[in-house]
């Protein structure tokens, strides 16, 4: 969700709400146009497209700029919360004149957001840029859970579908946990669907076991999210579901992929989806691995 300043500044210290209709914008260093506030009939459209508004008064979300927290204050060493919601493609350069930008991406539509926090904000409908405006690089965002590696922390701080299985078994997050999350994102970008679907941590763990086999027996009794877990998750005689096998799923989801490319993708996934986090491939190793470089070469042509 995008966030913008809460007032529109005009010369002389005056403030004025953004206009409700399209109008000419006089460009100058003193003029800021942050889009249009919607009327009450359109507010449900904004709320539907944005994060749950009820999370703000409770303190789970904060209507602030990330620069208020990060710039020149902290060096990010470990990003704990890694999922598709905070990985974004960059945009190609746009005209510096705001009105020209809006011709390409549309005017922001927004509504006021009042909270009990130190600063109010605005809900802004995410823009949908044209494909030709999307750049080749990606950026990370949402560093609210970033911390120094090795710091003890609350275990459950990631969406279930991207959460490494050790994190629901009372094991502190690690760089290996990030690699697991990355593999979930990698699969989703490659196939267009979740690697391990589910509406809760328990259902996601079931999906993991169906695809990869039983969890380590030593983990039994340590599951701590909404119950004690299911005994069958740790049954070393578990019979895997053929339809949940990674190779079978990719074959069904990407019938256009040749045998060579399929093996490269499987090689990458299998090195990052090991149950013991210390055995997973590292980010540096992945970048230098023949499978990853081979796949990147295929898509760089």
UniProtKB/TrEMBL annotation:
SMART domains: S_TKc. Residues 1-292 form the Protein kinase domain. It comes from the Eukaryota. Keywords: ATP-binding, Kinase, Nucleotide-binding, Serine/threonine-protein kinase, Transferase. Gene3D superfamilies: Transferase(Phosphotransferase) domain 1 (1.10.510.10). One of its GO terms (molecular function) is protein serine/threonine kinase activity. Pfam families: Pkinase. PANTHER family: MITOGEN-ACTIVATED PROTEIN KINASE. This is Protein kinase domain-containing protein. It comes from Fusarium oxysporum f. sp. vasinfectum 25433.
